[in-house]
Amino acid sequence: MDTPPAAQPSTHWVENYLAAIDSLLNQIIQQGGLALSFAIHPLLEESSEVESPEYVVDFTGADADLLLERNGALLDALEHVVLKAARLREEHLGKFAFECNDWRRQRVEELKLTAQVAAERVVGSGAPFALGPMNPRERRIIHLALRDRPDLRTVSEGVGPERKVVILPK
């Protein structure tokens, strides 16, 4: 009898989920009538990020822009639904990233730049600065971008979709 993916040792955990993710995405794309295709591939570049993904699900096609509307809301939703439906364990969720037209990488760079500009504003003024509401992934990027600044600290405030990062002087 096969052991379910969640109970198998973590050494080759990824391979246990690839077929499920592929199948779920194909079903969603077909049933949704979306003009999309995707490829799942290992992330080949080395990253200095603590929790960088190991695999990228990269979307292309005529409906790719739909995934990126409203700050990538559909891309985020698709990632969330598929990874949950594939029954990934909580600690493995960050090992997959859904990408479309290099949007996530560009968004990470934008958030890092925003964090640095806001940090300089806080240092210059001595006053806290609240960024706009962000999803958990984006808030984490801000926190990580500023974690080595001894003159600042960051906190998340708010509830649900209104949760945001506040940058404070130490």
Descriptive account of the structure:
With 170 residues, this protein is α+β, with helices and mostly antiparallel strands. The protein folds into two domains: 5-101, K homology (KH) domain (GMP Synthetase, Chain A, domain 3, 2-Layer Sandwich), CATH 3.30.300.20; 107-169, 2-Layer Sandwich (Ribosomal Protein S8, Chain: A, domain 1), CATH 3.30.1370. 45% of the residues lie in helices and 20% in strands. The protein contains four helices and six strands, in the order H-E-E-H-E-H-E-H-E-E. It has helices at residues 13-32, 64-85, 103-125, 136-146, and strands at residues 37-42, 55-60, 96-100, 129-133, 152-157, 164-169. The strands form two sheets. The protein has a three-stranded mixed sheet with strand order 1-2-3. It has a three-stranded antiparallel sheet with strand order 4-6-5, covered by helices on one side. A hairpin with a 6-residue loop joins strand 5 (152-157) and strand 6 (164-169). Helix 3 (103-125) packs across helix 4. The longest helix has 23 residues, at 103-125. The termini are far apart. 20% of the residues are buried. Mean pLDDT is 87; it is low at 1-11.
Secondary structure topology:
Layout: H1 13-32, E1 37-42, E2 55-60, H2 64-85, E3 96-100, H3 103-125, E4 129-133, H4 136-146, E5 152-157, E6 164-169
Parallel strand pairs: 2-3
Antiparallel strand pairs: 1-2, 4-6, 5-6
